[in-house]
Design brief:
The chain is mostly helical. Helices cover 84% and strands 0% of the residues. The protein contains 5 helices and no strands. The longest helix is centred in the N-terminal third of the chain and has 27 residues.
Length: 134
């Protein structure tokens, strides 16, 4: 009788040890999730818009135009990829698209100071969209 109790206790201890040691760390260390396509598009738009701002700060409208076009491409992608987000994201993406288009026109005209102002408005809208996008 003592042998069966001893065997049962050994089996219980052997089964409990891995559960306490092996499974507990798995519950604590959840894998990091990759950002959504919406967030990735907005980050790409932010990066290219920052490049446009930097180019306009040194009066390089040609480089700024290229960056404006890249920003526009990312924002068009964001319109589709952010469709399931809260309405504020979509509104900010549309606002950023409009101000980026204004910046592009100003850069085509060679008015880097005006383009810079529009790019800063674009940056603000992208930042606001990123703040609530998931």
């Amino acid at each position: 009788m003592n042998r069966s109790r001893l065997a049962a206790a050994t089996v219980t201890a052997a089964m409990a040890a891995p559960a306490a040691v092996g499974f507990a760390p798995l519950a604590v260390a959840a894998p990091a999730m990759a950002p959504s396509a919406c967030v990735t598009d907005l980050q790409a738009a932010q990066t290219s818009n920052n490049a446009a701002i930097a180019a306009d700060q040194v009066n390089n409208t040609a480089a700024a135009r290229t960056a404006n076009l890249s920003t526009a491409t990312s924002l068009v992608a964001a319109i589709g990829d952010c469709a399931g987000q809260v309405p504020a994201v979509g509104a900010n993406v549309l606002t950023a698209s409009a101000s980026n288009a204004v910046a592009l026109v100003y850069n085509l005209l060679g008015a880097s100071a005006s383009a810079l102002s529009a790019e800063q408005a674009t940056a603000s809208s992208i930042t606001q969209a990123l703040a609530v996008a998931t």
